[in-house]
Amino acid sequence: HDYNWHDSIHDSVGTPCGNDSPFPCDDQAHGTHTTGTMVGDDGQGNQIGMAPGAKWIGCRNMDANFGTPARYIECMQWFLAPTRINGTDPDPTKAPDITNNSWECPPSEGCSAPTLQAAVEAQAAAGIMMVSAAQNSGPGCSTVQNPPGIYEATYTAGALSTGTDTIASFSSRGPVIADGSNRIKPDITAPGTNIRSS
Known about the structure:
By secondary structure, this protein is an alpha/beta fold. The chain has three helices and six strands; from the N terminus they run E-H-E-H-E-H-E-E-E. Helix 2 (69-80) runs parallel beside helix 3 (117-125).
């Protein structure tokens, strides 16, 4: 798994993946579902992903659905220059073109509005398109409220009720007031309920 996997969890308290997993591991099923939505393809014509021909690399940044700023930043750093599984020989030519970030960093995890901004802007400066969830705190206005989905440097996706043009009730909405920007978010909405995946 050189250059295609990194685990930023070094102090787990008993989740199935443990610490520093040397191979892709998902302790909450959410990563598997979102990866399937992106690139799912069984190689036999069953293409469930939006980009089934894309190559996938990943970084585990949550321990059973709990992250920290340090874990999120470690993954963003790894994406800038992926390494061998032992952490050696970083190679920025192997950086992804796009990352999917279906997570948020709320105050309960140690984030405030500016906490991840420099790391997110470093992704953009490196030419990595960081796609982030609009978050699931709808339906009220200004509920896109936590990093990374609040930033200008992210492309933020909200959820539609599948088969309609109606924003799903749980999907967060802008404008962003957490940083005082009144930035319009999300940048796009797409089908987001009852999605078939792996």
